[in-house]
Amino acid sequence: MRKLLFATVTALAGITTGPAVAADMPLKAETPFVERFSWTSCYLGGHLGGGFAHKDITDPVQLVQDSFLGAGSTVGVTTVSPSPNGVVIGGQIGCDYQFASSFVVGVEGAASGSTMKNSRMVGLPLGNPDTALVRASTDFLPSLTARIGYAFDNVLLYAKGGAALAGDRFNVTGSFVGVPFAFEGLDNRFGWTVGGGVDWAFSHHWSANIEYDYYQFGHGGILMSDGINGFSGIVDVKQTVQVVKVGLNFHIWGPGW
Fold first, then answer.
1. Domains of the chain by range and CATH?
2. How confident is the model at residue 35 (pLDDT cuts 50, 70, 90)?
3. Is the predicted pLDDT of residue 191 greater than 80, yes or no?
């Protein structure tokens, strides 16, 4: 009888103390909700890279020889093709909007200063053995583009395209039958650009990107003036530019993570 009473008391004690012990046990922590990064923001930043241009200049030989000897003196056409290359550095500002589907659309304005330059020597047959040095440089490259991309959380793959402007300088210098000349022409030419890149948001407000851009500016006549002899004439220039650059942007008004 005493054994049965003891067993009953022990069972009742276990039943009554069980919930209290369970109440004192620590609860499993909830997994925190991680908010997806959003590219909806405006940004501004800077970039640094390298550029390569190709310029077909037609016809600097006629420009020189016809200036000295009269129109129609030069027979045939000569095209000189310097390939300027150098550093590009500048800044950009833009805004993006990210849809729920992770597609991103935006607009960006950018401007780059450039050290791209190159020269070629060309013979002047009517002043044999005279030559002319043909030099070309690109001083700045502004653009206004739209871009579209797809976001993989804080990584954005994008393509872009729009309007562009090239600020160029051209020189044809040398001497003809012992008389020096120095033709110079400046050109601000509109064209178009397309490109693409990848942008990586590495903190709440900062992202870094690498980008390739192709510029096309077509044909155009450039007025060349010789300040030494008072001559002037037209050469035709066709040009393209390619740029690879890295950039750093500061994002504002974006929710971040």
1. 40-252 (2.40.160.20)
2. low
3. yes
- Side chain identity at 139, as an amino acid letter? D
Structure tokens at 59: 């016809």
pLDDT attached to residue 128: 87
The pLDDT of residue 47 is above 90? yes
Q: Say if residue 102's pLDDT is above 70.
A: yes
* Residue 210 structure tokens: 């690498």
Say which residue, 214 or 31, is predicted with more confidence: 214
Among 109, 69, 114, 73, which residue's Cα sits nearest to residue 91? 109
| Cα within 13 Å of Cα(187), Cβ side | 30
Structure tokens at 36: 């997806």
- 3: how many CB neighbours lie within 10 A of its CB? 7
Question: Residues 146-149: contacts with CB within 8 Å, 24+ apart?
Answer: 146/105, 146/106, 146/107, 146/108, 147/94, 147/96, 147/104, 147/105, 147/106, 147/107, 147/108, 148/103, 148/104, 148/105, 148/106, 149/39, 149/103, 149/104, 149/105, 149/106, 149/199
Q: Span 231-236, mean pLDDT?
A: 98
3-state SS assignment for residue 120: strand
What's at 200, amino acid-wise? W
CA distances from 180 to 42, 73, 132, 203, 218 (A): 54, 19, 10, 59, 31
Q: Is the pLDDT of residue 3 over 70?
A: no
Closest by CA position to 39, among listed 100, 109, 110: 100
Residue carrying structure tokens 């030559």: 131
Omega before 59 cis (within 30°)?
Answer: yes
Tokens of 132: 């002319």
- With cut-offs at 50, 70 and 90, classify the pLDDT of residue 168: very high
